[in-house]
Amino acid sequence: MRLRTLAFALAVALPTVTSFASNAQSTPPEETPEAAPPEAAPPEATPSDAAPTASATSPAAPALATLETVVVTGIQPGPGLWQIRKGDNTLWIMATLSPLPKRMQWEPRELDALVARADRVLTAPGVDVDADVGFFGGLRLLPTALRARNNPDDRTLAEVLPPEVYARWEVQKAKYMGRDRGVEERRPVFAAYALMDEALEDLDLKRDNIVWDRVERIAKRNDRDIVDVDVSIKIDDPRDALKEFEKSSVDDIGCMEATLKRLETDTQYMVERANAWAVGDLATLEELRVDSEIRACVLALLGNAALKKRGFDDLPRRVVAEWVRVAEESLAEHATTVAVADFQVLTNPDGLLAAMRAKGYTIIAPGEEPPAADETIDVPMVESEASEGAPPR
User: Which end of the chain is more exposed for a tag (fewer CB within 10 A), N or C?
Assistant: First the structure.
């Protein structure tokens, strides 16, 4: 069971205990509207230079009544690629972002060309959880998995959240979820995730990892070698693990608070970050860097006793170490490797680029000139998927 999302953080966020539950209780998503054709695309919206950086210490403010920034649509190039070099070999990295504009049509010609001729393509860092239950075993575990989403002892959010946090929850729930009663029984970490999903829908954004979807499709079409960058965890007792999780506590109030704060103060900048990625404005992405609520939610789950005893607590460090190992191996043996990684996981002070830099590698950011001693690598251009008639992702 391969757990992967826009970052290893999310891959860890909803592992064993929710995989069966989410598959069973989710209704099929609505069809995403087709992106506007090129001639109908409105002008690109760019983030305001005056927009302040979101801060973990910023005071809470009322949610914006209207969005001042319009979500971009139509054909967009996305950001450029980072390079890590060793001799004549190069590792090219495309940064993903979540959320992104829902109606954007992404056309990264440079990335398409690189993937089509790459010796290796690396998946985003992830976690491979082997529960060895099979399809029918999963069905038998489904009732327990569904219960594991809820608070122990049938308590509601009103009973487990501090009064001031619950009051803030009620405001955001009314705005984005309406009169949904079932969510009131969920643990704060799962309620917060559901709330953010509804908010993104209203903001015309989506979590989908369009980067990996496209990279994988092109790699398979050209018979490229795809390497899963995984940390493997074997769950020998999935039924007992679920039961323990169901009965044990999760210190996830911080997850709920972080989610509420983003919805109270960050919705406009969320749109601006999505636009910045779409038009390739990495300077704005850096300027509007924010601590995602996902980190707080992941740490809450990893602190659960049922997961800690089964080896989940050290996952963030292990995932970075495994990615670095595979990246170094690729640089040593292959001329061209293409990798995909979440923007924050890639660029954070404790992220992937920092780990490679600490080992002495030179990092070339998108738009930067390579060191004079290096020979510039020529990237051939190929026809985009859109010109081939493939559906936009």
Answer: N
Q: Is the peptide bond before 79 cis (omega within 30 degrees of 0)?
A: no
User: How far, in Å, are 25, 161, 187 from residue 134 at the CA level?
Assistant: 19, 37, 27
3-state secondary structure 164-213: HHHHHHHHHHHHHCCCCCHHHHECHHHHHHHHHHHHHHHCCEECCCHHHH
- Rounded CA-CA distance 76/138 in Å is 40
Kindly state the tokens that stand for 186: 């969920």
What contacts 212, CB < 8 A, 6 or more positions away?
A: 4, 96, 123, 124, 340
pLDDT digits (tens, 9 = 90+) for 43-66: 333 333 333 333 333 334 333 333
Quote the longest CA-to-CA distance of the chain: 65
Q: Which residues pair with 212 in a beta bridge?
A: none
- At 230, phi and psi to the nearest 5? -120, 150
This prediction's pTM: 0.70
CA–CA separation, 20 and 139 (whole Å) = 8
Cβ-count burial of 250 within 10 angstroms (0-12 exposed, 13-18 middle, 19+ buried)?
Answer: buried
**Each residue's pLDDT tens digit, 232-272:** 777 766 677 777 777 777 788 999 999 999 999 999 888 89
**Axis crossing angle, helix 16-25 with helix 134-148, rounded to the nearest 10:** 90
List the structure tokens of 300: 């809450």
Provide φ and ψ at 250, rounded to 5°: -130, 125
Positive or negative torsion for Cα 163, 164, 170, 176: negative
- Show the tokens assigned to 8: 């290893």
Q: How is residue 7 annotated by DSSP?
A: S
Rounded-to-integer distance, Cα 73 and Cα 210, Å: 15
What's the CA gap between 146 and 178, in Å, rounded? 22
Residue with tokens 């490229």: 224
Contact 2, 209 (CB under 8 A): no
The Cβ-side half-sphere exposure at 200, using a 13 Å CA radius, reads 19
